[in-house]
Amino acid sequence: MKHFGVEFKKSKFGYEITKENYVLPNKRCSLPYFSDFMVRDDNYLYYPKKFSEDYFFKLTKFYETQQKKYLSSHQIQNWHRAMEGLKILKMTEDSDFKKRILNLQKTECEASKDEFVTRYLSRLFEIKENFNLEECVQGRIYSSLWLEKQKKEVEKNFDLNMRFFEALDEKEFNAELNNFLKRNSKFVEVNDLRDIYYKSGYYIMVLDKYKQIYIGTSFHVGKRIEEHWKKRKPFDRLIFPWHAVESSVLSIDAFMAKDTTRIYVYQTSKTYEMEDRFIQDFPRKFLLNRVSGGNELILPLEKKKLEENSGK
Fold this sequence. Notes:
By secondary structure, the chain is of the alpha+beta class. The protein has two domains: 2-24 and 147-309, no CATH class; 34-139, no CATH class. It has helices spanning 19-22, 34-39, 49-65, 73-90, 96-102, 113-129, 144-167, 170-183, 221-230, 275-280, 306-309; strands at 2-3, 6-7, 188-189, 201-207, 212-218, 262-267. Helix 3 packs antiparallel against helix 4. The longest helix is centred in the middle third of the chain and has 24 residues, at 144-167. The two termini are 37 Å apart.
């Protein structure tokens, strides 16, 4: 299959997004592992002492069984932090974790001290339950419980997004796009990515069927667009942020090559300088951008009250 000059091998997933090729459950963790969470900001000190001691003991034993030359610098850092954590835990009392939790309680909080500790601990252990620590003590594998919940949330979020797209007005979408192109006249329509494969600048991917666009920037525009088409979004990143079922935007990387029907490119060496301005210059309800300027800043989500705006 050839699309915008790019050759694609035959794929069992096809070349357009469907619920079947979008919802592909996978237990592999692509986000920070449980071991990362424990050592980050000293989170282990907010769990009961015995739990943290047992976990760090198993974690350090795991690292000790590995050949050091195969461990990443990040793993070695976590190993050292876990050993340091065990030393600190030896000097603490069993009830100290409760005192630390209570220090987080705001004075205006109506919950009693015991209620606050119970709720906070419940959230901490919910995080722990997301991971299958028996299969991988580092937390690189999610639990079956997490997988089942994530699958349901991803399916619901997909349906909500599709209903939202369907409810949008095609004439309004095209009018907004045409007006944007008039205001930003340096964007030119491109039919072959090979012409701009290693060119720098800004690009607009248009998904006419869904009345959505994606605005990006790159030093190699054509190459970057091809990466969007060929990259699969990890299953644990399909909802952003986690559990935001009714507000999470489908990622541009979740769509497939033939979903993109038009491409506009503004060639310039001044990449990344104007991306935010272009994003803010287009109505949110027609945008697939999740973050701003590549800086992992969550954009305003007024567009994304998906259930309210999808005619449900």
